[in-house]
Amino acid sequence: MSPALIRNPNTFWVENEKEALVQLLAQVHGLVINDQEAKLLAGDENVVRAGQTIQKLGPRFVIIKKGEHGAIFISDREMYALPAFPILDVVDPTGAGDSFAGGLMGYLASINNRQHALEDEQLKKAIAYGIVTASFTCEDFSLDRLLNIDRHDLDARYEQYRTMISL
Q1: What is the pLDDT of residues 147-159, one digit of tens each?
Q2: CATH 3.40.1620.20: does it fit domain 1-82?
């Protein structure tokens, strides 16, 4: 397909390869997707219902990225929303969604879980790490901010975030 014919690269697979995507979803353990993609895939403007519909297609859990509003986790066992980390000076949010996914996956890789099923608390902590990773991305252009942090910075912001959202 010619690039000129692609209306929105974020929704390409849902708009052009939906049948193949649905077949793939029957085989995956979890899905990370943004709210626009989730609504389009499920055919529902309500993001919670959209996530539940997608979860019924096969994934054991669905994580819906909601940009400046954080993320929603949906599974058969529970559903919760985690807010975004508040940033005073947003420089450029480009790439924050990808950074979220990278931070989430990086945390899961770091715990070296040899079980076949992830525990809900591990996933919740992974989402929080994704959120704080994305927050660093928004503080500068491109990957510049991420190039200037280390695991200590990430862990310190995670602890600040954890304290912020505890009830």
Answers
A1: 999 999 999 999 9
A2: yes
